[in-house]
Design a protein that fits this description.
The protein has one helix at 20-28; strands at 2-7, 10-16, 31-34, 36-37, 41-45, 57-60, 64-68, 73-77, 89-101, 116-121. By secondary structure, the chain is mostly beta strands.
């Protein structure tokens, strides 16, 4: 499944795997939310509530599309967060991994706290 995430200064597409969380997210689209930033991560509420999957990860590659179950939020790291060690992308807690961005995830650096953000099928 491909999704498009857009905000006032840009957009990216991502390819999601065939996971229970990705399916739940797909059924809820389109989603509009207000963006939050945390270091080099963008996250926002989805209104989707799912369980933590067995293969959840806390340290992921930049550009990973992750789902933070504790906040019902998409977590989109593009670099280090305040709790990262070195240059890694360390999420607040283990997250379900959904897929990855098709383009340069550094475009997420243009997202500002409070920006309107939209997720839809691509």
């Amino acid at each position: 499944m491909q999704i498009r995430i857009s905000w006032p200064s840009g957009q990216l597409t991502a390819t999601l795997g065939d996971t229970p969380t990705a399916k739940a997210l797909g059924e809820a689209l389109p989603i509009s939310a207000s963006a939050n930033t945390w270091g080099e991560e963008v996250y926002f509420d989805t209104g989707v509530s799912v369980a933590l999957e067995d293969d959840a990860q806390q340290v992921v590659d930049p550009g990973t599309v992750a789902f933070w179950t504790e906040g019902d939020a998409l977590a989109l790291p593009y670099g280090p967060t305040p709790i990262s060690r070195g240059g890694e992308s360390r999420l607040a807690s283990p997250c379900n991994v959904l897929g990855s961005f098709d383009g340069d995830p550094r475009l997420l650096a243009t997202v500002r706290d409070g920006d309107p953000i939209r997720v839809e099928l691509a």
